[in-house]
From TrEMBL:
CDD domains registered for this protein in UniProt: GAT1_cyanophycinase (cd03145)
Domain of life from the UniProt record: Bacteria
Gene3D superfamilies: 3.40.50.880
Organism (species): Brumicola pallidula DSM 14239 = ACAM 615
This protein's name: Cyanophycinase
Enzyme class name: hydrolase
Keywords recorded for this protein, A-Z: Carboxypeptidase, Hydrolase, Protease, Serine protease
Keyword Hydrolase tagged: yes
Function: Exopeptidase that catalyzes the hydrolytic cleavage of multi-L-arginyl-poly-L-aspartic acid (cyanophycin; a water-insoluble reserve polymer) into aspartate-arginine dipeptides.
Family: Belongs to the peptidase S51 family.
Listed GO MF terms: carboxypeptidase activity; peptidyl-dipeptidase activity; serine-type peptidase activity
Keyword Hydrolase in record: yes
Length: 272
């Protein structure tokens, strides 16, 4: 469950990005994140844990500084012991915006899960600090995190692998690089387990800006695919054998391009 908010405060935005966000010519998504976080007065902390490239944190620091941010930090959290470093927790506490990079989401969950850094991220977001994550950093916002699965359009039994995420949001399951990597099948497989979940598939250079009212706005050059199983009449998941194609009746699908919105709590899509 997300951390509880404090009376009189609004939860910060949760901004999952589908990966490959534009960083140079028209960094619309990153610029909007920075604007929400305070513009030139923003304090952005980058967590490059998912990446195994040594320069990922410094590259994003440079990108944010070129957009206009004066103060950035990158936390070199490589092992679980790093995520318990009180100096890193103190630095994180200065943030007005937190950015988690792409890479391997299992590195994020196994290194950060249950640590002071993860707890601080959740608490800060509940207190109004904005969180943005790209690719792996997007997948981990969910309470139920997709870590792998089959490609294509037909869902199957065993067609998705799930692990606990950070739980900044608990009613959706997020997938990324969505249309580019043909991931509808695994998102359908994920929501077939329980219609409590809403599937959100993010194309590259596309983000969902989820506000404190649980309404998200689409920003970017691609689209967001929303799979809403709340009115599902039948799922064959319980009877299916490993690898079997699934029967799913009355699943609702929305394709939302930039400017469109979706109310997660009321499960309603609309245009601005």
């Amino acid at each position: 469950m997300p951390s509880p908010t404090i009376d009189g405060t609004q939860r910060g935005y949760v901004i999952p990005i589908g990966g490959a966000e534009e960083k140079l010519d028209n960094p619309e998504i990153l610029a909007k994140f920075i604007e929400l976080s305070g513009g030139k007065d923003a304090v952005i902390t980058i967590i490059p844990t998912a990446s195994q490239l040594d320069d990922t944190g410094s590259r994003y620091q440079k990108i944010f500084e070129e957009i206009g941010v004066k103060k950035t930090y990158s936390l070199p959290i490589i092992e679980r012991s790093d995520a318990q470093n009180p100096e890193y927790v103190q630095t994180l506490g200065k943030s007005t915006g937190i950015f988690v990079t792409g890479g391997n989401q299992l590195r994020l969950s196994t290194i950060l899960g249950g640590t002071p850094i993860a707890k601080t991220i959740r608490q800060l977001n509940a207190q109004g600090v904005h969180y943005a994550g790209t690719s792996a950093g997007a997948a981990i916002v969910s309470q139920h995190m997709i870590t792998g699965g089959s490609t294509g359009t037909v869902p199957t039994e065993g067609g998705v692998n799930l692990a606990p995420g950070m739980g900044l949001i608990n009613t959706v399951v997020v997938d990324q690089h969505f249309n580019e990597r043909n991931r509808l099948a695994r998102l359908l497989s994920a929501v077939s387990y329980n219609p409590f979940l809403i599937g959100v598939g993010l194309d590259e250079n596309t983000a969902a800006f989820i506000d404190h009212n649980n309404v998200f706005t689409v920003v970017g050059s691609g689209a967001i695919t929303v799979v809403d199983p709340s009115d599902i009449e039948y799922s064959s998941m319980a009877e299916a054998r490993t690898g079997d194609a699934l029967t799913l009746l009355n699943v609702k699908l929305h394709i939302l391009a930039t400017g469109a919105r979706f109310d997660i709590s009321n499960r309603k899509a609309y245009v601005s």
